[in-house]
Here is the input.
Amino acid sequence: MSKLRFQRILLKLSGEAMVGSRGFGVDPEAVAKITSEIKEVCDLGVQMAIVIGGGNIFRGRDSEGMDRTTADYIGMLGTLINALALQEALEKAGVPTRVQSALTMSQLAEPYIRRRAIRHLEKGRVVIFGAGSGNPYFSTDTAAALRAMEMNAELIMKGSKVDGIYDKDPIENKDAKLFKKLSYIECLQKGLKVMDATAISLCMDNSLRIVVFNLFESGNVRRIVLGEDIGSTVT
Here is the structure.
């Protein structure tokens, strides 16, 4: 078996990754595709934590006329819907999984407890963190950076619809330039939408590597943990 470059990773999934062809909500086919990618890596012995967004259900910052704090809490509930859907798919595929919530949801998920989460990872369980950081005004990108550091992850992998970080939207602009390697400062100065500024700053302060890659190209997650140069790297 090929040697693993990374033993413990955090995968950041956007809510949009769960949409598939539906345009809204949770598409079972999209979830099955994500599940197969995760299972392939877990079968190699990689310890994986996941932070998932909720933009396919509700996006707090875009809710006009609503109190921002209330809107963000509604968005956190959306992330828990996604977390439970992904857990169900992973368990059916034979991948032991635990959902931990930053909000108290005792009937649905464990409370977030750092030492328990690390123990789950050590036992080979995938841990899905729902409800972001549990705080309004902070994105799930920031929650991903925070949880990655708390779990002592070696890498944040951010799944995307495109091959990496571009200077502009490559779907709408044919002349968009792909950046293979960037520094944290360059991301902030160029205003690149890799992760939000708070998340990038947290990663910079703690020297946590970020890889942005195409989640929907089969085998990419496995290739990255084996050390292949896939997507764009921020260090």
About this structure: The CA atoms of residues 70 and 136 lie 8 Å apart. The longest helix spans residues 68-92. The chain is about 35% helix and 20% strand.
